Amino acid sequence: MATSKAVKKAVRKYDEENTVQFNIKLNKNTDSDILEILEAVTNKQGFIKELIRVNMGNLDEYGIFSKFAK
């Protein structure tokens, strides 16, 4: 089914107003442990978001947030 120009425009408008996209680059050698886990997960975005949400309270405890925060 072909998507009409109007639908594409509406999706683009929605995305611009409501979403943010972050991209990461992982090294096959040094990040192989992370890649192995992500390759086993069907919903990578949901998995990453849940990891962050579950660990939000612990970020300062381990100094993770302050290490990477602006």
Instruction: Tell me about the largest β-sheet.
Output: none
Radius of gyration, in Å, reads 17 Å
The run of helices and strands is: HHHH
**Would you identify the regions where 5 or more consecutive residues have pLDDT less than 50?**
none
Total helices: the number is 4
Strand content: under 5%
Q: State the shape.
A: extended
Quaternary structure classification: single chain
Number of strands: 0
Helix content class: 55-70%
Mean pLDDT: 91
Structural class: mainly alpha
- Termini separation (Å)? 44 Å
List the helices and strands and how they pair.
Elements: H1 5-18, H2 32-40, H3 44-55, H4 64-68
In summary, what is this structure?
The protein is mainly alpha-helical. It has helices at residues 5-18, 32-40, 44-55, 64-68.
Question: Describe it for me?
Answer:
This protein is an all-alpha fold and 70 residues long. The protein has a domain of 47 residues. The longest helix has 14 residues. It is extended and about 50 Å long.
